[in-house]
Amino acid sequence: MDALLDRLPAHGGVVVLRGEPGIGKSTLLEHVRDRAIALGASTLSASGVEAEAQLAFAGLHQLLFPIVGLGGRLPDSEREALDAAFGIRDHVTPDLFGVAMAALQLVVEATTSRPVVLLVDDAHWIDHSSGGVLSFIARRLETLPVALVIAARSGYATSLDGSRLPILDLDRLSPTSAAALLDREAPDLHPVTRARVLAEAAGNPLALVELARYLRISNSTEQLSPSPTTLTTRLQQAFAARLRGLAPLTRLALLAAALDSRASIQEVIAAATLVRGADVPAECLQPAADEDLVDVAEDGIRFHHPLIRSAARQLAPPPDVLGMFAALADVVVDEERRLWHRASSIAGHDERIAVALEDYARSARRRGAITSAGAALERAAELTADPRARSQRLASAAEIAYELGLGVAVKRLLTEAGSHENEVDEPPRLAWLREMVSGDVWTETGATKVFVSLARRIRDEGDTDAALRSLIPIAHRCWWTRTRDTTRRYLIDAATAMGAPGNDPRVLAVIALADPAESAPTVLHALSRIRLHDVTDPAAAMNVGVAAEKAGDFASGTRFLGRAVAGLRAQARFGPLTQALVHFAWASAHTAEWDAAAAAAQEAAGLGRDTSQPQYGLTAELVFAWIEGMRGPSEPVEAILAEPERRLHAMKGGPLLATAHLARGAAALGEGRHQDAFGHLWPVFDESDGAFHRFMRWSALLDLAEAAWGCGRVKEVQAVIAELDAIATRCEAPILHAGLICAKPLLESDEDAGDLFTRGLAANLDALPFHRARTLFSYGRWLRRRRRSADSRSPLRESIRVFDTLGARCWADRARLELRATGETIGPRTPLARDQLTPQELQIAQLAARGLSNRAIAERLSLSPRTIGGHLYRIFPKIGVSGRGQLRDVLESADGRES
Prior knowledge:
The chain is mostly helical. Helix content is about 65%, strand content about 5%. The strands form two sheets. A five-stranded parallel sheet has the order 2-3-4-1-5, sandwiched between helices. Residues about 420-425 and about 895-899 have low confidence and may be disordered.
């Protein structure tokens, strides 16, 4: 912990403390706070409370409240996003990505005078919206004078789990250390009692202290439960015993504080007064403070441990708890807390409150507080008497759980919804969810007709948005499987007839997935009118990105999908995040951004397992293998493919196997094994083979042509090339046109190849650098074989430069051998100035070299402008420049120099 703080102010960092209750997480946070203050840093703190886990951005508001006054320094859009998230503005719908960016920038503004240390306790109870923002911030602290220390209870899922933050697991004390602590805290214990406490506490520091204190109160070892209850239960019993010793008025006020951690002293006393029916003096809280159970301050009451809060609530009879919730609803000042207290005070049904919760859920969803919306809908359903209305609300809650990747919760909610159906017809959204959870959308006969029918019923109930969303899974099936043309047309017609505009992201995604050969011109025309920063909803950004990459525009797809990934991660929506990561990996693999693509694929593979989306997890593993195949060599590819292929064969994966064929083909091609490469690739193009994939052929076209050229099987692929050429005449897909223009020189006679190579290299292949490098390599080989060695050297040198830059190791080695055969000797790539930069630093330097401002770079990379400035400050001396005006010359002149 001290090492983390010692890095300030030059570098920041993050650590998650994880352990059981009482292990010392809060004590460690206090140590960090004291150390930070001693080092001259400022601290900001927040603590999760179970009762407030459904309050949108409650944790973030608590953390940033001391510095909200700095919001005046933020751009208007960021300030408005924070205001909307905190409920200050009602007319603004914040983008969750914007809220996260604004929160990060606000923290950065707080570092202008000194470093900042963020402390978050009980993160397992922090609301998901705040957790998503914290996750976003945590991944961007390396170059900032900010440290983030988070404490979470073991065994609890949190919205930070998918962020891969460094974790420090706290273990129990050794027997020697436990005995020393107990003897220091309770030196007068009887030896028998001492032995019992040591045994019961089992090295838990809080248990050692509290169980000893409990025994002093009870004066008997028999008070310790002999039953095998959990340590948490025993601690709660110990705290309950201490609370029972307080006066009834004190316990009443503590109950109010336990039910609302954000309540001020005035609100706590006012609620207790309402319940009692007579004045309750604020001084009644002092005995609890004297007993070291709470801290009392003007802004509220802080329990020394969450188990004390739990004990205060559990000591009260249920009617008293309901009464206190009702009283809090009458006295608290903000509407969100008032609504939740009112909803918690009702034991039966109340349609008025249910409707209010439903309205709140819509508002929370617009703010990106997805989990809060789900909790509100679930509570609304509990308050609903009408069976059909209850099922509708449970279906809405289940949809949110599905988005969040909470498979167990989805099944539970669907079961509850079904148990309240009686004999009324099942709501279509509920039926759709059952199909998604229980049915087999990938193999079920007639699935397209079922999904279109459900979508139309959903639309007829007035929810066009949900209707369009419901068509996307079946559209994915169309892309992946051998669907008949009539079925594809049927789905496209259904999507376009839903009543949404033609440029609606969901419409674009459905028609692009259903049949990109037919819909690509429509999709690409619509994409040309959509600007990245106009798409603020991450789900919409994902749909636009999916439409772009399926229509063959991988450059646009990468941009929109990158935005979607950042936004969905900030919202902790792990279900769609998994999908967005897979699509991003696929798209950026085409644009040769292989490091980013590989990282996304590996993350998606893990999330696919965690969110019960096995097809996406498998696809991610296969895409990762394809990326490694392009990089070379082939040995790692076989190791990566072994397990996912085994599972795919077991489930008769069919076209899903196409990606594995692409991976092996790419690896073999990079090593110059053309015959092997042809054997791996041909099944993807052969309609009689189970791995045939109608649209994945577009991505593998150049690979097949090179393999055929290299092993003398050009005539066998002529029919396929002719078919794809015919599709290209009516389809504007960039990847298909690029594949054809780069492949044709390899498939034509030597007399025509020269002009075709020239035409291919004159084409705009900026978005597909791997295609261009391979075309340069093939052109150089062709020239050398025509005894034009001098002419061949320039394209070969250029191909080596690009292969080296991309990290295509096997291709670079082959190009060097080819160049050496021309009589020019070229050694291994010499480390250049740019090689001193990390991938992120190189990306920032390249953007700055293009003239982008710090703010523009920050927006593109989801960082703060101050972070970009810090990166550039470190980049300049690394590559020997004194300002951004020199970046372009240095980066460009460095490329391609060899020893």
